[in-house]
Amino acid sequence: MTSSERWGRAQEYEQAFWRSIAEEVAHDSLERIDFYSWRAGELRKRFEALGLAELMDGSRRILELGSGPIGVIGYLPGKNRTAVDPLNRFYADNEHLSRLRNPDVRYLDALGEDVPLDDEAWDLVIMENCIDHTQDPGRVMQEIHRLLKPGGTLYLTVNGRSRPGFWVHRLLARLELDPGHPHTFTKTRFQRFVQEHGFEISWFHAGSWWSAWKHDLLAKSMRARAKGLLCVSEHLLSCVATKPSDRSLTSGNGEQGQVRGSS
After folding, report:
1. What residues are paired with 241 via a beta bridge?
2. Of 13, 133, 175, 192, whose CB count within 10 A is highest?
3. Confidence (pTM)
């Protein structure tokens, strides 16, 4: 858990980032916004490959935490779709970002650590690469566990780092040289984090840190090259996990399950 002051500065950084995106949108550049539709398409393919296509049949209740201004959820079918983000009022007040929202999605301004929604009401919870932005990642996972129905599905991703990169980033985060990301994970720490909060991982994938590192070292951007030199290059960690139906395993301290990897 990070301090309220540190998290507040991270949110200021996040607002500045989205103001820059809004300026791009104002000039008809949707390149970085198009990520949402692309990611939704990839997620649908993943669920189909895992035998979870029913999650995308339009009859399920879907919740996205840390949705950003639009959310992956805006491009997925669902009976009830709700997007939660602590900056949702900020996004709603920006005409360039708010006009891109799906009108059938409910956008709720709330913290991931304290979501004002009913227990065990959701079939699918999505958290796309933002658990490292939160003030208290463990508390967010407890909320996800509370919100999901028994047998419900969690799709969780985060940018991870190598073991040396984890410790370098810890220092950079403390010095606020990476103000938007108070937390970070390695592959092993991420898997353990999910399992320790009562979820059974059914699929896990780690992108290539080696490829990310080489890409940063060869980049024209000085910032990217500095990341490579400091070994804090990021590779995406993704998992699909289940809240067990057996309530004896849903105390938030579940046993580690079998993990199926994917290329």
Report:
1. 154, 201
2. 133
3. 0.88
